[in-house]
Amino acid sequence: MRSPEALRILLRNPYGRLGLAVLAALVAAAAVGPHATPYGVWQYGVCRPFEPPSLSHPFGCDEIGRDLLTLFLYGARVSLFVGFLAAALSTLLGALLGLLSGYFGGPLDVVLMRVVDALLAIPSLVLMIIFAAILGPGLFNIVLVISILSWPPVARVVRSQVLSLKEYPHVEAARACGAGTARILAKHIAPATLPLVVANMVLQVSNAIIAEAALSFLGLGDPRIPSWGGILRFAFRMGAVSAGYWWYVVPPGLAIALAVLSVTFVSYALDEIVNPKLRRH
Amino acid sequence: MGLPRYAAARAAQTLASFFILVSIAFFLFRVMPGDPTAFLLESPRIHPLTRELLRRRLGLDRPLHEQFFVYMANVLTGELGYSLYYGRPVVEIIFGRRMLNTLALVGSSTAAAIAVGLAMALLSIRRYGSRVDSSLTAFSLVTYSIPTFWLGMMLIMLFSVNLRLFPVGGTITATRAHEGFLDLLADYLWHMTLPFVVLTLIQLGYNFLIVRNAMLSILQEDFVYVARAKGLSESAVVRRHVFRAAMPPFVTIVGLQLAGIFSGAVMTETVFSWEGLGRLMFEAVSTRDYPLLQGLFILILVAFLVANYVVDLLYAYLDPRVRLR
Predict the structure, then answer these.
(1) pTM reported for the whole predicted model
(2) A189 vs B146, B160, B213, CA distance in Å?
(3) Is residue A263 situated within a structural domain?
(4) ipTM reported for the complex, 2 dp
């Protein structure tokens, strides 16, 4: 399937359209927002502490008089950056390991699948918390932690598809023609797994956004620029919840939920591409 | 493959998982941050000789593989060391009040989420394609997307701060003398209500979607046509034939989901200051209490491996086809 066709199917589906639109709006806010706001992330005292929303500060202010809209826009950058990057890395890792494990089999396959079983058996957040606590807080540490612990489901589905793909006649034909292993993998097997890999990557994005939010809320995120989860950590610790300062709490959480929901909608629409049987004619 | 052989094969697999995870823990806690004395004795006020002495006493001067065997022996005999923050044995902190609180919260909300999720799925499948069906599906997708801790914060703000119906957090009212057991129980349940609602809501959508999809595919099976052909009403078909056939996959999913539920419990307990294992984990991270963190990790992985094993056997018992693979 060529990508323009995939995009057309995605846009024909109402869920796909809505998901893409919301996602595009959030990405635009993250890309443009920090340049449009007159304040910096750490610029405090621009308004009264916990000032409610007003025309000059539409999202209100935090405990040291920072503009919450500014924090929100910078937070969008961190949340989405970590979400997309961690999802891309974990999907790549999972697809690669699944490909090798499924194609070569043998001891490599046995060991890898045991590791997958083990990692899937226990709460991934618990492992992420421990990894992050030991590595220390930081933007790239959190990307590393999420991607290193999220690949097992991708590896498992890609492996099972490769297991059936390698028995296909066209792969056997290529082998009979004397094609090397690298060529068979790159030309005949990897491209065939692409739709499945893309569908899994979309799921990985929503998981990574949620995981990043949870880790940042626990204080394991990037300490320099708070993500949406990091803003919620400040709000919680500074008593915004028990004081009822809703403007501090609602926007970041709503944004996380919207980002995850729109990604879920896109993956729902992508189902049509991955399973052509569902496609309407 | 008979059930006993299947049970033995799965047991071997579970043991392999155990050794992989325990080894990961060993390398994480010992190799990556230097060694345990690095964060214990980082302070410049501590003489290098003191540190050397401690390293020797803890066996950290021995080769890594020797340390690994000592560690394995300790884990297998349940020796998990002392908490740096509490100064008490890790095992003693975990087994007790903390564990009971988590079991109460997670157990009750999981049971509620299963019951309500099944009821919702039945309702939705009987009116497949109706407005009820699509709004239940939309509701599930939304609850699935909301971050657990944010849902907790919103409920606290609405029901505890604005409406003053529930406490802001904690497990019992510490400032009050309770009159007898019933009074204590009522206070406990009052504190548990909001965290219970959060944990139920985040599981509900998932349960609903799984059972609904399972039932949708079963609706196309031949035995459903037969049931209809023999004149059973549509609701009897769904109740007696479709619902029943959807149960085995649901059991496995609930089993697989246990790990995710615990992740939810970590966030929920942290927000509501619920004195359970999830909150304990957050505290161990905040205070950099590595022995406690490691002990928690090992106990959590044992609990989940055992739970997964039991669920798999249950599934194999319910659906004999699984054993044949």
Answers:
(1) 0.87
(2) 37, 56, 30
(3) no
(4) 0.88
